[in-house]
């Protein structure tokens, strides 16, 4: 970034500021163009899934079943509402990023200090910056010295020093001044700033639909075409081939189309994902993008931002080392380490009473925990202070002593403190080696020294005092509680944890070791990443679990390379720097408490309690939800197979029409709750977190899964057709045959639900799922009303079966049970004896698929 010519000490004049504001625009990110809600809604409605719901709802409405039509059409409204909210996400993210800027800024204009809206800051403005200020624009320091918290941009928790000269003179918009005062000249505003470039990257990053969404859209489109074609052909067949009347033929075609159209599929996706989001919210995980719920079960890589995600984003004093002893003491110990009282007292005296700097706050917290051991009932007021300066990176505070002299307490960069103490070369080398040992643990180290002064006038520089080195203290950003256990759970579930941080490699390595990451020793840095092409970087990513000194665009590049390698990436983060990668990842997970609005708006999930362990719970829920969707979809296809064949075969066999539209409507009143309530409420399988993630391309609509379900349903259909054909051959009345058929279909519903639960290890009806008992009661009540109330029997064109027909019905139900019990054995034998079983052993994703 080029630096414009410096303006005078009086700043810009108002006229020039207005001219630059007109030329460059407001110091804010541009808002996206608002699309009319009607246009977005129309775009949503042309999706095949929604068209299918509308057609099915219209059919039910035409048949006079307002309750079923209302249910389906209400589902359309619900899904459209969710989709409209997602269409607005990019706009909200940009607005949140724009609002992150400081609302007002103190500038020098017309020779005076003026506080103006941050949006009106222009290039060339002189910003007056002080402790606690959020910087309004990118600027170059002209005077003073600052320590700036840039964690929102870099991910590094420790504040960085900014000086008027050299490469450290640039300060960035939206970062926070933690210490010092300075005058800075604005060099970039709006989208030209570092945070503005991130906003543009965020706007250009597009979300991709999940595999389940793409697969369901393809399947629904195919089934809709097939239903229309078959229903039309069947109507003509009944009319021209079977000799039925036109009205009866049309009714038969409607019945077949209703049997083929699995309107439960979009309902399943809607209800399961919405209920899954509600259940995760109870565990402090807020869902902002419904597709992320089902994608959780396929996550293979969890890309984790260190600061604020794995760590607390709060500095703590973690180590103390006396200068006269080589031992480093644990700062987390309950008691003050032996011999460290003087070191701690001097460190406290060198710290201002109400600091804004995170490390100084950590010093005061540590001293408060050990107040009894420090023997400082009242902290004295300082008589003189020497702040940090570009030539001496240390600060000194002076206090009156009972002896009449002054006690001086100093803290600062270890090299600066060692230089102030004027140690001999050998002693200085020993002291700096101690510093290096502490820094190798990922700690930020400060030196502490003391001195005495008895002169009348205070020297102009800290170098004029004779200091004695007391020792060193190390600060760290400790891991969050529960993170090591959560990382272990991820490893057991086959989810790789990859740390992506802007922090120092040594710090990243230390944290990775503390939380138990498998390959914590080797670190891939941002400089190395820039030197590698995509192929070499992709290979290197397979060897390391820690990446440090990353810039925002590098995080985005890594996420995309992982996705290109076939990984399903969940990205966690809390800062502005994480937003583009959060949006590009398959699942973006933002921190709710400490995270920025930008991260929360870009993410698909938000952790309300900032607990890393909540991610593991979310993955567990995602896997449970996907398992339940698989079971529900299989149930739908299995139960529709006998319905379709019972609607189709009578015309081909010259039988009377057995399955009427009213029968299908009545059965749907059971099928819908069974799919949307019973299967959704199923508890997780025992091995849900002990198996690898499912393959990214796997969907509940895979041919192998549907083939097994259709085999189940096809066998059931043949048994029902056989029983009906036998009764018709015996000359039974069509109404009695319909009654036997209806009982058989109800038995199919119940048996298929029980079989799907048994595959999950849930054998006892109702255990862990109260909705199953409700469904059992509903089926029993429905059969009692249908067969026991004459008016209802007449409406459904049924008749009570005689003893012989009842015996056939009993045998039919027993045959249904035998078929569902024998089929898994047959399929298992084919798999073990077939060519697949004699090939090489399956890999991890093959195990996940089974």
Q: Can you describe this structure?
A:
This protein is of the alpha+beta class. It contains 32 helices and 22 strands. The radius of gyration is 36 Å and the shape is elongated.
Task: Give me the secondary-structure topology.
Elements: H1 14-24, H2 37-45, H3 48-62, H4 66-87, H5 89-99, E1 104-109, E2 112-117, E3 126-129, E4 138-149, H6 151-154, E5 160-162, E6 170-171, E7 176-188, H7 194-204, H8 211-241, H9 246-260, H10 264-281, E8 285-287, H11 291-295, E9 301-304, H12 306-310, E10 316-322, E11 328-330, H13 341-349, H14 358-369, H15 371-374, E12 384-386, E13 394-400, E14 406-412, H16 414-421, H17 425-439, E15 444-453, E16 468-476, H18 483-492, E17 496-500, H19 505-514, E18 523-525, H20 526-531, H21 534-541, E19 546-548, H22 552-564, E20 569-573, H23 579-584, E21 587-591, H24 597-602, E22 605-607, H25 613-653, H26 661-678, H27 703-729, H28 734-759, H29 770-788, H30 790-795, H31 803-833, H32 844-849
Parallel strand pairs: 9-17, 9-20, 17-19, 18-19, 20-21, 21-22
Antiparallel strand pairs: 1-2, 1-3, 3-7, 4-5, 4-6, 4-7, 8-22, 10-11, 10-16, 12-13, 13-14, 14-15, 15-16
Helix pairs in contact: 2-4, 3-4, 5-7, 8-9, 9-25, 10-25, 10-26, 16-17, 25-26, 25-27, 25-28, 26-28, 26-29, 27-28, 27-31, 28-29, 28-31
């Amino acid at each position: 970034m080029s630096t414009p010519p410096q303006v005078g000490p009086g700043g810009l004049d108002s006229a020039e500021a207005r001219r630059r504001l007109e030329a460059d625009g407001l110091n804010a990110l541009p808002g996206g163009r608002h699309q009319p809600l009607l246009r977005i809604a129309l775009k949503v409605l042309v999706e095949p899934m929604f068209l299918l719901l509308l057609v099915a709802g219209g059919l039910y409405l035409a048949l006079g079943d307002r309750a079923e039509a209302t249910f389906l059409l209400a589902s359309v409204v619900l899904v459209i509402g969710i989709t409209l909210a997602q269409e607005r996400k990019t706009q909200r993210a940009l607005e949140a990023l724009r609002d992150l800027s400081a609302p007002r800024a103190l500038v020098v204009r017309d020779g005076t200090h003026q506080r103006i809206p941050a949006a009106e800051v222009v290039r060339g403005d002189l910003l007056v910056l002080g402790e606690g200020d959020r910087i309004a624009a990118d600027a170059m320091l002209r005077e003073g010295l600052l320590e700036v918290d840039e964690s929102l941009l870099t991910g590094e928790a420790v504040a960085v020093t900014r000086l008027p000269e050299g490469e450290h003179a640039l300060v960035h918009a939206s970062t926070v001044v933690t210490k010092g005062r300075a005058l800075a000249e604005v060099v970039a505003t709006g989208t030209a700033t570092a945070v503005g470039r991130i906003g543009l990257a965020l706007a250009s990053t597009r979300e991709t639909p999940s595999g389940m969404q793409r697969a369901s859209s393809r399947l629904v489109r195919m089934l809709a075409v097939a239903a229309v074609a078959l229903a039309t052909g069947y109507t003509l067949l009944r009319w021209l081939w079977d000799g039925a009347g036109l009205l009866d033929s049309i009714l038969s075609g409607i019945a077949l189309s209703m049997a083929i159209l699995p309107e439960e599929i979009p309902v399943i996706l809607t209800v399961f994902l919405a209920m899954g989001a509600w259940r995760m919210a109870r565990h402090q995980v807020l869902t902002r993008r419904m597709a992320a719920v089902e994608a959780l079960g396929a996550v293979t890589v969890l890309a984790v931002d260190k600061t604020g995600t794995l760590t607390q984003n709060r500095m703590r004093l973690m180590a103390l080392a006396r200068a006269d002893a080589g031992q480093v003491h644990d700062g987390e110990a309950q008691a003050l380490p032996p011999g460290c009282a003087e070191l701690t007292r001097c460190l406290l005296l060198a710290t201002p009473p109400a600091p804004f700097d995170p490390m100084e706050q950590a010093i005061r917290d540590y001293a408060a925990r050990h107040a009894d051991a420090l023997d400082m009932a009242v902290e004295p007021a300082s008589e003189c202070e020497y702040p940090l300066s570009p030539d001496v990176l240390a600060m000194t505070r002076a206090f009156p002593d009972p002896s009449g002299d002054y006690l001086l307490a100093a803290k600062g960069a270890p090299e600066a403190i060692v230089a102030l103490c004027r140690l001999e070369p050998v002693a200085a080398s020993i002291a700096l080696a101690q510093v290096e040992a502490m820094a190798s643990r990922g700690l930020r180290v400060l030196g502490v020294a003391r001195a005495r002064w008895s002169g009348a006038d205070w020297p102009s520089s800290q170098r004029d005092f004779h200091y004695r080195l007391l020792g060193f203290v190390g600060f760290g950003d400790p891991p969050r509680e529960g993170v090591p256990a959560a990382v272990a759970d991820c490893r057991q579930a086959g989810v790789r944890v990859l740390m992506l941080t802007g922090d120092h490699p040594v710090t990243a390595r230390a944290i990775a070791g503390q939380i138990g990451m498998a390959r914590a020793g080797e670190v891939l840095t941002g400089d190395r990443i820039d030197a590698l092409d995509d192929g070499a970087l992709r290979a290197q990513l397979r060897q390391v679990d820690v990446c440090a000194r990353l810039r925002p665009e590098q995080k985005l590049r890594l996420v995309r390379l992982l996705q290109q390698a076939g990984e399903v990436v969940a990205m966690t983060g809390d800062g502005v720097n994480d937003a583009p990668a959060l949006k590009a990842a398959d699942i973006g997970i933002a921190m709710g408490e400490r995270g920025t609005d930008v991260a929360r708006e870009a993410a698909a999930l938000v952790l309300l309690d900032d607990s890393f362990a909540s991610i593991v719970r979310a993955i567990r829920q995602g896997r449970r939800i996907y398992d339940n969707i698989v079971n529900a979809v299989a149930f739908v296809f299995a139960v529709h197979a006998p319905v379709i064949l019972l609607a189709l075969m009578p015309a081909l066999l010259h039988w009377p029409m057995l399955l009427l539209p009213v029968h299908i409507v009545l059965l749907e009143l059971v099928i819908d709750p069974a799919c949307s309530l019973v299967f959704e409420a199923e508890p997780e399988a025992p091995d849900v977190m002990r198996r690898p993630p499912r393959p990214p391309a796997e969907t509940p609509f895979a041919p192998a899964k549907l083939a097994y379900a259709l085999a189940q349903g096809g066998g059931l259909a043949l048994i029902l057709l056989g029983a009906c054909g036998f009764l018709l051959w015996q000359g039974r009345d069509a109404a009695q045959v319909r009654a036997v058929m209806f009982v058989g279909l109800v038995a199919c519903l119940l048996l298929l639900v029980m079989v799907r639960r048994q595959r999950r290890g849930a054998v006892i009806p109702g255990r862990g799922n109260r909705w199953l008992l409700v469904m059992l009661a509903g089926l029993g009540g429905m059969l009692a009303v249908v067969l026991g109330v004459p008016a209802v029997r007449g409406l459904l064109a049924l008749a009570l079966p005689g003893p012989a027909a009842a015996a056939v019905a009993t045998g039919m139900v027993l045959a249904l049970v035998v078929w569902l019990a024998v089929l898994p054995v047959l399929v298992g034998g084919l798999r073990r004896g077939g060519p697949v079983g004699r090939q090489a052993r399956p890999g991890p994703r093959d195990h996940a698929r089974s």
